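Wed. Picked up where I left off yesterday with DNA repair protein RecO. The coffee machine is broken again, so keeping this brief.
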Amino acid sequence: MSRVNESFAGIIMSRRDYREHDLLVKILTDSMGPLMFLVRGAKRSRSKLAAAVLPFSYGQYVGMLDPQRLSYLITVKELHQWDRIGADIDRNAYATYLLELVDHAFQEGQSIGAWYQQVERALALINAGRDPQVITNVLEVQLLGRFGVAPQWQHCVVCKRQQGPFDYSEAYGGLLCADHWELDPHRLHLGSKTVAYLQLFSTLNLQKVDQVNVRPLVKRNLRWALDKIYNDQVGLFLKSKHFIDSMNSWDQDLNGLLKK
Ligand SMILES: [Zn+2]
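Structure written out below (tokens, as returned):
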């Protein structure tokens, strides 16, 4: 059942050409999750909708929503842009990855509840210059549950002890306390700071966060741990993530050159 002229909050996720003057635009809607919209005439220079579907735009839209087929965008009532994401390669890369991850995490046509505000806030923080990797890591930890991996971050999986040191075990699906490390020789051998951030991120409400500072070494370890969990337990390999990885290796190459 399509819903006619429904007003909804939306975040532009991705877009591609469709016919000469039209675009297909994936929008994250608050009421029905990610939906594909046909946006007629969006490539015409005088189209009002052209600006409304630019990357990293969000606002209040009106459309005909159809979770089974194409939805149609009719007009925009209130439009904002995270313009500092588009202008920065680092922020752009992480925001693009975040949106691709969200697209895979939710089914078309189903309300995503409070997730909508969490995603919107994550993008607002990235736009405001907060560390894009760390903000992305927070959502990566929280979205694991959507991919059927719900690690136990609060206590040891075996004895329920709440006091660390802890390490993460993929085989046990959560934390192991030092008394139980011997159960899994393949535990990730994470440092206590890295584990503490993973625990913090798992329940962090971004609405209540303004600044997150994580030291570079811990950031590298967080990146490594989450890549390992996503590769081994989720099995998701996204193009936008591959881009971030190659961007990081350019940085290393460049630093290597500068040191010579
Ligand atoms: Zn234990």
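Quick read: Residues 239-259 form the longest helix (21 residues).
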